[in-house]
Amino acid sequence: MHTCRDCNESFATELALELHRDTCEQADLFCDVCGKRFRESAATRDGWHYTCPTEDCEGQGMGDQIKRIEDIRAATQ
After folding, report:
1. Which of 31, 71, 37 lies closest to 51 in space, CA to CA?
2. What count of other Cβ atoms lies within 10 Å of the Cβ of residue 13?
3. Which distant-in-sequence residues (6+ apart) come within 8 Å of 9 by Cβ?
4. Count of Cβ atoms closer than 10 Å to residue 10 Cβ
5. Rounded to the nearest 5°, which phi and psi values hold at 66?
6. Contact, 6 vs 37, CB < 8 A?
7. How many helices (H) and strands (E) does the chain have?
8. Among candidate residues 1, 27, 31, the one with its CA nearest the CA of residue 14
9. Which pLDDT band, with edges at 50, 70 and 90, does 77 fall under?
10. pLDDT tens figures, 17-61
11. Which residues are registered as beta bridge partners of 60?
């Protein structure tokens, strides 16, 4: 069983989980450095400083390397 860390929905295969991650409504931020999506609460403790929660990733800064999914979608449509 594979579970989305953002919304806790479970999937039978890793492929199904990967496909879900592209549309998960709970993951509202994107890291340009590693390409992962995650919740805002995972990226900041104080609401001012943002860092990618992925191990071994050094992405940081809202608007610099960390972007809101809605901003990315608006720019690519």
Report:
1. 31
2. 10
3. 3, 20, 24
4. 12
5. -110, 125
6. yes
7. 3, 5
8. 1
9. low
10. 888 877 777 788 999 999 998 888 889 999 899 999 999 999 999
11. 51
Q: Residue 51: name the closest of 38, 42, 60 by CA.
A: 60
> Which residues partner with 67 through β-bridges?
30
In the chain, where are the structural domains located?
Answer: 2-76
Residue with tokens 């990226």: 43
Q: Which two tokens stand for residue 58?
A: 């050094």
Residue 72 CA to residue 11 CA, distance in Å, equals 26
Residue pointed to by tokens 């929660």 = 53
Whether 31 contacts 51, CB under 8 Å: no
